[in-house]
């Protein structure tokens, strides 16, 4: 409550110089802390700070003890114990210092607010003039304004030089740059369908109605870059009741109700791994694109546009499932030239 | 003020330690002129407020990341070379995996304190991003980005982007199946870029996905490129803070021409220093008690398996949500047979592009439509800038709807809802939510401003009821003291831009009118709806025709009291009475 700063209101009432803004009443009064008035409280705060720093020292000692006494052993239990003991001791060591220092600052250090002047960021006119003059002098000394050809030459040289670093970098970084590889997979006519990850070939008779197989080409292990090939070639195989099949992507691409689709989502390439037996829907767990396996893997929901490409399959003489050919279109996410 | 450290002979009765310190200071000063820096900075004033700590959390969690990160590099092997695991974690013994994954397992199980450091590193990264975002919210809603700090806003914005990059590149390093699927999504998004998509994918992965190069490349990005840029920009960010001096919240005695607070030494040396240990300590406690990214449960990367309910780190969820919400129909094939995946381009590039661009350019847009060229060092109370606050909240709502959409599968399983319904609900909400948030926030701001006016004009309710001889009851109101009032009336009264008319006095069309008119229209969107702060004249008027008259005159003319529902307690507020009406 102050009474000394209402001059503006008085002015207003007197009818001259009506201000449309209040005036800043100035810094509020400083409120002393308990510790500023009572030496006992002050001493108590000091003891609290001491105690907090003490906790930190104990924490560090505890850490060293835990390091030697609780090594992570052969099981998850010992690992958890070691992690907890080390972490808790470290936390005490750190929080002791942190809270101690902050408490010291808040309870014991001078808490009188101070005010400091600010100055405009811009330099004053004189400085600016001097700066401009300095640049002018420099430009004159260099003679750049008189020698136009030099200006062009230095800009051209400096602009061209980064090519020497960029060329080998960009040239090598994509390896062979053969993006055509995106359109082919390891599947060929006669490649056996094998279980992932064991690599054992699958017999048509092993596949019961409603069951799902995660499939890789049998030749995967011999590939030059198995992981790269697997990333394109993985297939999901399902056996439906042949009467449930509404459509396929190609005539005769299934075998006795067994259909095989690329497992790589046509959205952004996650493995489409969740199969719902009742609805014949395949769900991608990443972005929930949903495909109807009984209807040529048509998209029924989600952000994917295209059906999962179907792998044409049949059986060989021994009853093993084999591919009739590679996929008839690129698998996985769309890219600019995928239909070229 | 401070004593410079280069005056050893002024100390009375120096202790050996004091002499050593003075000697060192003298040595350094003679070679560096350190005294000037100490004199300038030691007692520099910084204002105090809890919300200023958000940026400090970002800084200190980054230091924590550096400390724990250096530890991790000692043991991590950034290689995709194939190996077979053998070690204490039985379920993966003999499994084929990359050196990166195998060394992550060794770090977790065999290096003492290794798991702790990994968990500290990961938790600190999540907190780093969270504190950047909340710090940015503070700066946005209080208008701390205004002149002269627009450039520092851009620096901070760049730090946010670099933080995302740092987090993403680090998350992928262990080469586990979860982060591997994240990379696969990245590959899908890169391939969707028109024309150069497949080449860009080869550029990143060194050939086909996943290739052999990615982990070493990400490692270099993660431990060298991005941290170096972040460090440099943090340096610039803080340099700007020193140059501009810190902003302060409004209050009596706090002006655009001063900075009120405590000196760097000793208050902030102790407080901020202590705060570093506190932030590090809290992160250590989290790492001790909460498991994060247990890659040994996920297994090494393999292109075939994927787990349901997989989530990226929180700061990437909005991208994931954006991808999930987009209907697939947007993909099309052009004339000539080229595929344009708008179902990926829109959610993964255009939506975040819009969000981030709006964020980056907002200070410049606001400055232009406000027509304000002054420096601002006193912060805004968010309510006093209804458009800005509402705009910020609606951006945040859009962001959080995308974050939630990124967890739509978890929402579905936890609440037993149909995932298709949830996705549809979010699709609608993404458009309706921000709009609704804007309208509601703006109304709340205007309401709070009216409340401020009400308080300034009529004072606090006291609960003291007075009955007049006439039988009328009135509640006595206690006027605000000058400090309380100042907080509620100090802000600028910003009105929409006024422009020159379209034609001059002689009826000639003015050049540049159309541009001015457009600026004015935008300015009206910003400032048309407003509640102006109370002026001294209004306060005087409210006192004279209502309350003061009431208490002064009721004895004489009780019948005229009707208009004044409040009675202001005159005690201590004004020395003069309020009988005279203002001119």
TrEMBL record, chain A:
Keywords: 2Fe-2S, Cell membrane, Disulfide bond, Electron transport, Iron, Iron-sulfur, Membrane, Metal-binding, Oxidoreductase, Respiratory chain, Transmembrane, Transmembrane helix, Transport. Iron-sulfur subunit of the cytochrome bc1 complex, an essential component of the respiratory electron transport chain required for ATP synthesis. The bc1 complex catalyzes the oxidation of menaquinol and the reduction of cytochrome c in the respiratory chain. The bc1 complex operates through a Q-cycle mechanism that couples electron transfer to generation of the proton gradient that drives ATP synthesis. Its cofactor is [2Fe-2S] cluster. It comes from the Bacteria. Residues 20-40 are annotated as: Disordered. The chain crosses the membrane at residues 49-70, 82-105, 152-171. The keyword Transport applies. Belongs to the Rieske iron-sulfur protein family. It is found in: Cell membrane. It comes from Cellulomonas edaphi. Residues 232-322 form the Rieske domain. This is Cytochrome bc1 complex Rieske iron-sulfur subunit. InterPro entries: QcrA_N, Rieske_2Fe-2S, Rieske_2Fe-2S_sf, Rieske_Fe-S_prot, Rieske_Fe-S_prot_C. It is a multi-pass membrane protein.
UniProtKB/TrEMBL annotation, chain B:
Residues 251-447 form the Cytochrome b/b6 C-terminal region profile domain. It is an enzyme of class 7 (translocase). It catalyses: a quinol + 2 Fe(III)-[cytochrome c](out) = a quinone + 2 Fe(II)-[cytochrome c](out) + 2 H(+)(out). Residues 540-583 are annotated as: Disordered. It is found in: Membrane. Pfam families: Cytochrom_B_N_2. It is a multi-pass membrane protein. Keywords: Electron transport, Heme, Iron, Membrane, Metal-binding, Transmembrane, Transmembrane helix, Transport. Residues 24-250 form the Cytochrome b/b6 N-terminal region profile domain. InterPro entries: Cyt_b/b6_C, Cyt_b/b6_N, Cytb/b6-like_sf, Di-haem_cyt_TM. Its cofactor is heme. It comes from the Bacteria. Residues 544-555 have a biased composition (Basic and acidic residues). The chain crosses the membrane at residues 53-77, 120-141, 153-173, 219-243, 264-288, 344-365, 386-404, 424-441. Its EC number is 7.1.1.8. This is Cytochrome bc1 complex cytochrome b subunit. The lineage of its organism: Bacteria, Bacillati, Actinomycetota, Actinomycetes, Micrococcales.
């Amino acid at each position: 409550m102050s009474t000394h700063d209402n001059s503006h209101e008085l002015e207003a009432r007197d009818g001259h110089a009506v201000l449309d803004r209040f005036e800043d009443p100035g810094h509020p009064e400083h409120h002393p802390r308990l510790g500023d008035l009572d030496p006992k409280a002050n001493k108590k705060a000091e003891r609290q700070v001491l105690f907090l720093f003490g906790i930190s020292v104990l924490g560090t000692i505890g850490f060293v003890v835990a390091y030697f006494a609780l090594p992570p052993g052969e099981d998850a239990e010992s690992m958890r114990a070691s992690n907890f003991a080390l972490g808790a001791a470290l936390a005490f060591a750190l929080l002791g210092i942190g809270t101690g220092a902050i408490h010291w600052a808040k309870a014991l250090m001078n808490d009188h607010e101070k005010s400091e002047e600010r100055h405009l960021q811009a330099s004053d006119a004189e400085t600016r003039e001097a700066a401009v003059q300095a640049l002018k002098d420099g430009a004159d000394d260099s003679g750049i304004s008189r020698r136009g050809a030099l200006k062009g030459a230095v800009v051209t040289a400096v602009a061209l030089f980064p090519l020497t670093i960029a060329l080998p970098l960009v040239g090598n970084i994509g390896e062979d740059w053969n993006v055509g590889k995106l359109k082919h997979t390891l599947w060929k006519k006669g490649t056996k369908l094998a279980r992932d990850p064991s690599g054992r070939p699958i017999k048509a008779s092993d596949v019961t109605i409603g069951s799902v197989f995660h499939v890789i080409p049998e030749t995967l292990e011999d590939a030059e870059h198995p992981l790269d090939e697997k990333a394109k070639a993985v297939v999901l195989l399902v056996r439906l009741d042949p009467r449930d099949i509404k459509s396929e992507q190609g005539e005769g691409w299934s075998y006795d109700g067994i259909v095989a689709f690329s497992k790589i989502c046509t959205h952004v390439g996650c493995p489409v791994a969740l199969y719902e037996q009742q609805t014949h829907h395949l769900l991608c767990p990443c972005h929930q694109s949903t495909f109807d396996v009984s209807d040529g893997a048509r998209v029924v929901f989600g952000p994917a546009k295209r059906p999962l490409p179907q792998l044409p399959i049949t059986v060989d003489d021994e009853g093993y499932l084999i591919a009739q050919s590679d996929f008839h279109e690129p698998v996985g996410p769309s890219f600019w030239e995928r239909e070229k | 003020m401070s004593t410079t450290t280069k005056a050893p002979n002024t100390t009375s009765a120096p202790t050996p330690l004091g002499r050593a310190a003075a000697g060192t200071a003298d040595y350094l000063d003679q070679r560096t002129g350190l005294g000037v820096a100490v004199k300038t900075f030691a007692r520099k004033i910084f204002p105090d407020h809890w919300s200023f700590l958000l940026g400090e959390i970002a800084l200190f969690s980054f230091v924590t990341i550096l400390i724990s990160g250096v530890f991790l590099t000692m043991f991590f092997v950034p290689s995709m070379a194939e190996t077979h695991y053998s070690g204490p974690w039985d379920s993966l013994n003999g499994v084929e995996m990359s050196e990166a994954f195998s060394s992550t397992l060794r770090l977790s199980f065999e290096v003492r304190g290794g798991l702790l450091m990994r968990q500290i590193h990961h938790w600190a990264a999540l907190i780093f991003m969270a504190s950047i975002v909340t710090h940015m919210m503070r700066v946005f809603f209080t208008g701390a980005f205004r002149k002269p700090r627009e450039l520092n806003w851009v620096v901070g914005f760049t730090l946010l982007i670099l933080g995302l990059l740092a987090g993403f590149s680090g998350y992928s390093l262990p080469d586990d199946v979860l982060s591997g699927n994240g990379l696969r999504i990245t590959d899908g998004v890169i391939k969707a870029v028109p024309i150069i998509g497949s080449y860009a994918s080869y550029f990143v992965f060194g050939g086909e996905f996943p290739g052999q190069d990615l982990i070493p490349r990400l490692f270099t990005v993660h431990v060298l490129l991005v941290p170096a840029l972040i460090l440099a920009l943090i340096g610039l960010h803080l340099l700007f803070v020193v140059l501009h001096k810190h902003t302060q919240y409004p209050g009596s005695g706090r002006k655009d021409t001063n900075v009120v607070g405590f000196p760097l030494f000793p208050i902030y040396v102790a407080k901020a220093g202590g705060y570093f240990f506190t932030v590090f300590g809290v992160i250590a406690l989290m790492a001790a008690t909460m498991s994060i990214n247990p890659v040994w449960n996920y297994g090494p990367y393999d292109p075939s398996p994927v787990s349901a309910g997989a989530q990226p780190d929180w700061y990437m969820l909005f991208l994931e949500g954006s991808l999930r919400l987009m209907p697939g129909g947007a993909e099309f094939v052009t004339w000539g047979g080229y595929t344009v995946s708008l179902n990926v381009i829109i959610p993964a590039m255009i939506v975040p592009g819009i969000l981030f661009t709006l964020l980056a350019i907002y200070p410049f847009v606001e400055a232009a439509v406000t027509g304000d060229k002054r420096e601002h060092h006193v912060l805004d109370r968010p309510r006093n800038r209804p458009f800005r606050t509402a705009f910020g909240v609606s951006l945040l709502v859009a962001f959080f709807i995308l974050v939630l959409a990124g967890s739509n599968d978890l929402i579905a399983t936890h609440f037993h809802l149909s995932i298709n319904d949830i996705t549809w609900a979010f699709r609608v909400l993404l458009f309706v939510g921000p709009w609704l948030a804007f309208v509601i926030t703006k109304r709340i701001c205007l309401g709070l401003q009216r409340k401020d006016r009400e308080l300034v004009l009529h004072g606090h309710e006291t609960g003291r009821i007075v009955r007049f001889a006439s039988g009328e009851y009135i509640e006595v109101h206690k006027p605000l003291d000058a400090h309380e009032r100042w907080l509620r009336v100090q802000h600028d009264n910003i009105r929409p831009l006024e422009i020159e008319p379209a034609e001059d006095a002689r009826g000639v069309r003015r050049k540049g009118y159309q541009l001015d008119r457009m600026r004015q229209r935008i300015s009206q969107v910003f400032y048309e709806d407003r509640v102006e702060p109370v002026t001294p004249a209004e306060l005087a008027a409210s006192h004279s025709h209502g309350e003061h008259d009431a208490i002064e005159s009721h004895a004489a003319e009780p019948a005229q009291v009707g208009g004044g529902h409040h009675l202001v307690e005159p005690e201590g507020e004004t020395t003069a009475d309020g009988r005279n009406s203002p001119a």
